[in-house]
Write a structure and sequence with these properties.
402 residues, D-amino Acid Aminotransferase, Chain A, domain 1, 8-stranded antiparallel beta sheet
């Protein structure tokens, strides 16, 4: 590999340590652009050639400063790749690629992987099922939507991540009270029909428009319920070879092809409606899934999404990309806010436990086995124990926090 191959990683949150390490192991020069508030974060500095900080208020960056700063850096260093490590940075990276004409996802494609309205509209255009929705823009269209769809509804910010800012709406009067309070921010939201069902996620590696790897999993409770009502979070890989797995992987392929991800990692969510039994596309992203889902994937398949993403961005430029051997185990992940500052998981000592979370006021673990039934049994048992041993809750903020 040429010595001067340089990758700029952008992250307004502390994450992606293994991505940074793998880039360095692949021989790249690694730059990190991050928030000034993360100056004392535990970044793997041995794998980073230089770190640049952007002044931020509540994780908000002034894009003009980002463009000026990165353009100045580019006077001396050719940036071969620009990668956003967090969902909130996808648009920043796309804008920089457009400005510097660096290879990778530009503004239009990035919208499909960040903007909940854009991704739904595109999916609907190509015939992928999505829950009925309307842009919170034209009031006549909104009223028509509510006449045609029974409540409840879900009000979603177009550009937030996860369940942040999402509100369940029980009737039109409640909607208009909230919409009016939004003022000029209304157009940054969409209103969607609430579809009760089981929610799944597919985590994917894409290289040169081809899906190299995909694994399907099922949430224990819907993420919105976990976030807003206070629940223990869990997810598990689904049984392989089933009609459900085949349908999820096929639909995921349709989504990736339709939205135009050329290379990278995607975390995509679907819902199987309790009413009609059909699978609906909910949303997608061009990043590794949050909530430590990469540990679930690694335990079940042996595939480290962060490190494989780094290989795709760096070494594939010179030698192509080769997916490592995949194992076919099953895994389950469980997470909870904890009432203890440092929860003690010593009593969780079954041989199937392969990972434990080390984070203040959080408890979490991953279990893995070659049997779906064993993982399912353990996850049910651990969920009950977590409620007794650790569980606490707090309101979800309307905006992202550190």
């Amino acid at each position: 590999m040429k010595d001067k191959f340089t990758i700029l990683c952008i992250s307004s949150y502390e994450k992606g340590h293994d991505f940074l390490r793998q880039c360095k192991e692949e021989g790249a020069r690694v730059f990190l652009l991050t928030s000034k508030s993360l100056e004392n974060a535990d970044w793997p500095k041995e794998s980073i050639d230089d770190i640049f900080y952007i002044n931020d208020v509540d994780k908000q960056w002034k894009m003009e400063d980002v463009i000026y700063g990165v353009s100045f850096l580019s006077r001396k260093h050719k940036l071969n790749r620009i990668v956003a490590l967090d969902d909130f940075d996808v648009e920043k990276a796309a804008s920089l690629r457009e400005h510097l004409r660096t290879p990778g996802m530009g503004d239009t494609t990035a919208r499909y992987f960040r903007d909940k309205l854009a991704m739904r509209m595109r999916a609907k255009e190509v015939g992928i099922l999505v829950p009925d929705f309307v842009h919170v823009l034209n009031h006549d269209e909104i009223n028509q939507f509510m006449e045609n769809n029974e409540p409840p509804y879900v009000l979603k910010p177009r550009l937030q991540a996860g369940a942040i800012g999402i509100k369940k709406i029980n009737n039109p009067i409640e909607f208009w009270e909230i919409a009016n309070s939004l003022g000029d921010q209304q157009s940054f939201y969409l209103l969607e029909k609430f579809v009760p069902g089981d929610i799944y996620h597919v985590d994917t590696i894409v290289y040169n428009n081809k899906i190299e790897f995909a694994i399907a999993s099922e949430y224990g409770k819907p993420p919105m319920e976990v976030a807003h009502e206070g629940r223990v979070f869990s997810t598990k890989t689904i049984k392989r070879g089933t009609d459900l797995e085949k349908a999820l992987l096929y639909l995921n392929k349709d989504v990736m092809n339709s939205l135009g991800l050329v290379r990278g990692i995607s975390h995509t969510e679907f819902i199987k409606s309790h009413k009609d039994g059909k699978l609906y596309f909910l949303e997608t992203s061009a990043r590794v899934g949050g909530a430590n889902i990469h540990e679930l994937v690694k335990a079940a398949s042996g595939i480290d999404l962060w490190r494989e993403w780094a290989k795709i961005e760096v070494s594939s430029e010179f030698k192509g990309y080769q997916l490592p051997e995949v194992k076919n185990d099953y895994a389950g992940l469980i997470l909870s806010l904890a009432k203890q500052e440092w929860p003690n998981l010593d009593n969780y000592n079954e041989k199937e436990i392969v990972w434990k979370l080390q984070k203040k006021y959080h408890a979490g673990l991953v279990c893995a086995a070659d049997s779906f039934e064993k993982v399912n049994e353990l996850l049910q048992k651990y969920t009950e124990r977590f409620y007794n041993d650790f569980f606490t809750s707090q309101p979800l903020p309307d905006k992202p926090t550190a």
